[in-house]
Amino acid sequence: MATFLLWVSIGQDIGLSIVAIGGFFALVVSRTISWRDIKQNMAWGLIFLYGGALTLSHALTETDAVTFISEGLVGFVGQNPLVVMITFLILVIVISNLMSNAAAVAVVLPIAIITITGLGTAEHYPGELVAYLIAMGSAMVFMLPVGTPSAAIVYSSGYVEVKDLVKAGSVLTVLSILVFLTIGLGWWKLIGIW
């Protein structure tokens, strides 16, 4: 409760991560949790996955690798912005099935925004539209347990095997893409996002 109150009161001033680390430190020092509990029950792989994805995203942006990848993608699929955006939609869906969807967004979003703005079509395809597209694509993850917490929960129940998730998830993913490209983009056009 104290950590929550500190987040609300001074979290913006000193940083949310500092408050979180302070709360963690207080739990260890007060012996509410032991180091053995932390080692055994902490999802270290998940922490490293997020950290690695955010670091990769930062490195891609800082080294201009984003521009290199962007130019390569445009050279491969052409300069039609709609085709490029659909390519990014499919790319983020595939990557989100292999790693956490939040981590996939952290990696793909900078590349997508640089690519679309580099085409000179920012007036018709603004950065917000690209961000929404990538976020929606990362939510269309149904094939593997690693993609979203809901898929992991279903898989961990023991009633479903990975092959069952892949079969049903493939159908759901294709349907999601079709619904999004027809109804979703039409709705965005209607309300003025696009």
From TrEMBL:
It is a multi-pass membrane protein. The keyword Zinc does not apply. GO terms for cellular component: plasma membrane. Pfam families: Na_sulph_symp. It is found in: Membrane. InterPro entries: SLC13A/DASS. Signal peptide: none annotated. The chain crosses the membrane at residues 6-29, 41-61, 73-95, 102-120, 132-156, 168-188. One of its GO terms (molecular function) is organic anion transmembrane transporter activity. Keywords: Membrane, Transmembrane, Transmembrane helix. One of its GO terms (biological process) is carboxylic acid transmembrane transport. This is Citrate transporter-like domain-containing protein. It comes from candidate division MSBL1 archaeon SCGC-AAA259E17.
